[in-house]
Amino acid sequence: MGISVGIDLGTSNSVVATVWDGQAVVLADAEGRSVHPSVVAFGYGNSVVVGAPARQQLAYAPDNTIFSAKRLIGRRFGSEEVDRIRRSVSWGVAEGPRGDARVRVQGKVYAVQEISAHVLSHMKTIAEQATGQTVDGAVITVPAYFNDQQRQATRDAADIAGLKCLRIINEPTAAALAYGYGQGHRQHIAVYDLGGGTFDISILRLDDELFEVVSTAGDTFLGGDDFDIVICDHLLAEFKAQTGIDATENRAARAKLLDASERTKRALSKVPAVAVKVPGLARDESGNAVGLSTTLDHNIIQRLAMPLVQRTFSVVDEALAQANLTAHQVDAVLLVGGMTRFPLIRQAVNHYFGKDPLDHLNPDQVVAQGAAIQAWNLTSFTDAPDAVLLDVTPQTLGVRTVGGFVEPVVERNTPIPTSLTKVFHTAQDLQNEVRIQVFQGESRMAADNELLGEFVLSGLRAAPRGEVKVDVTFALDADGIVTVQATDRETGRAVDMTIEASSNLTHEEVEEMRFDEIGF
User: Which of 29, 100, 114, 171 is the catalytic position?
Assistant: First the structure.
């Protein structure tokens, strides 16, 4: 028997942990690093480098070095979010065969799940080398506001990596588990999770070993990357002011400045001002290489970052309203994600909730630790108390109706697992089939939501419209994966499907991409 681990598959960094002698322990690589960049670099031939060595390649081979790929996972190529990503990265983004966004590097196109699989495989290797045991399975975390497509894609990535995914759990829930497991807390807590690519806020009720998510809200396109981008844009403007050269469309220059922006942001969490020097950004009219030399301080960063910080609290307002709580009724605030180390974030959280956030847990590691506890609970045979996780669906699920509207079946923040049914009627005379189109999102208009999938129930009795009734049942499992069934009330004939969004990989594609076979 091997071990089970928890993996925080992050946008910027990833962490792996396991339970050792009853304690959740973060595992380090041979160089002692416990936080690993979610960066994948392609070299000559089929060589692939992951983690810290890949991060070092970003400065001199940006076109071949993939970072922040998690922002693309489960997204459609034509979406506004993907268009924004394309403008900010140095590598290529291509359209997949079913309209999904994929990574293009060295003339080849890769599914985003393949890129994430390299990171997951790297985490598995680190765990096996650190413990001397094989890894049998993993609990993998995702942002609470991830939709069904993104959750399915994460499972695909685990399959490709040859890693048995025991469960998908939400990052804030994992963090709460690391904070409260075995502590006997009875309180409401807020988990403010600002990572590299996403922001989530979850309100949980803790009652001994019960961890109940009361509400969750989020923004899957708001994270540390966006802070880097606004700093980078400021540096590009400074460079143009100093040299007269517009390097906005220069991908190599942008990659160097994004790297400098992240390093500067990290440094400014510890010191009041940082000198920024980036040589060789472009060439002037004489062909001489020119660079940037400037200084950034807290005042400049606060001005640049404040609109993004304010966006997080609009989301927090929403989550508290859903939970029917005020900020002052929250007993404790847990910070998660590397961006929460930034002094401006901590000050803003303190001001909003009227209390200091908890600081005894490492915001970079707490999610992986919670995932490890859940993995241990699922696989161990000890007398330790089981943690009961009651999560919620982050977004509303519904069915398209006449006129392009969506009729909700499962409202957001509904506890899962769950099964809910709604009755629908035929919309036309003599209609003998219905097409069930499943959407996720908060708008009543289908065009504004995410299409998760569709299927057809045929063989209905031809009758005047409204006479034939069809039961549509949505079932969500503990991972938040959706199954939909349509049943003809008259005949009992049913058709069902596990929602596999059109942008996801087929089973055959996953098998073809798989790095190795799972040995169980």
Answer: 171
Question: Where do we find the tokens 């169980």?
Answer: 520
Domains of the chain in start order, with CATH, are 3-222+310-391 (3.30.420.40), 224-303 (3.90.640.10), 393-498 (2.60.34.10)
From residue 155, how far is each of 128, 148, 167, 177, 407 by CA, in Å? 21, 11, 9, 22, 28
Structure tokens at 139: 């609990």
The answer for residues whose C-beta is within 8 angstroms of residue 366's C-beta and 6 or more apart is: 174, 175, 178, 179, 334, 336
- How many angstroms separate the Cα of 186 from the Cα of each of 24, 63, 181? 22, 50, 11
Question: Two tokens at 286?
Answer: 């004489």
87 three-state secondary structure: helix
What SS3 class is residue 458?
A: strand
Calpha distance 379→397 (Å, rounded): 31
CA distance readout (Å), 171 to 218, 361, 428, 511? 12, 14, 45, 28
Instruction: Give catalytic status of residue 21 as yes or no.
Output: no
Two tokens, residue 56: 């070092």
178's enclosing H/E stretch is helix 171-180
Q: What is the mean pLDDT of residues 62-85?
A: 90
Question: What DSSP character marks residue 90?
Answer: S
Q: DSSP assignment, residue 461?
A: P
Respond yes or no: is residue 265 known to be catalytic.
Answer: no
Other Cβ atoms within 10 Å of 274 Cβ, number: 19
pLDDT band at residue 518 under the 50/70/90 scheme: very low
What's the distance, CA 83 to chain centroid?
18
Let me know if 70 is a catalytic residue.
Answer: yes
- End-to-end CA separation in angstroms for the chain: 9
Q: How far does Cα 123 stand from its chain's mean position?
A: 17
Average pLDDT over residues 405-430: 94
* Residue 239 vs residue 44, higher pLDDT: 239
Is 467 a residue of the active site?
Answer: no
Q: What does the DSSP assignment read for 258-316?
A: HHHHHHHHHHTTTSSEEEEEEEEEEE-TTS-EEEEEEEEEHHHHHHHHHHHHHHHHHHH
Catalytic entry in 29, 70, 265, 391: 70
Catalytic residue among 29, 100, 193, 500: 193
Q: How confident is the model at residue 517 (pLDDT cuts 50, 70, 90)?
A: very low
What SS3 state is found at 441? coil
Residue type, 253: A
CA distances from 486 to 457, 470, 495 (A): 7, 6, 5
Instruction: Catalogue the long-range contacts made by 102-109 (C-beta closer than 8 Å, 24 or more residues apart).
Output: 102/72, 102/77, 103/66, 103/69, 103/72, 105/42, 105/63, 105/64, 105/66, 106/42, 106/64
CA distance 397 to 148: 10
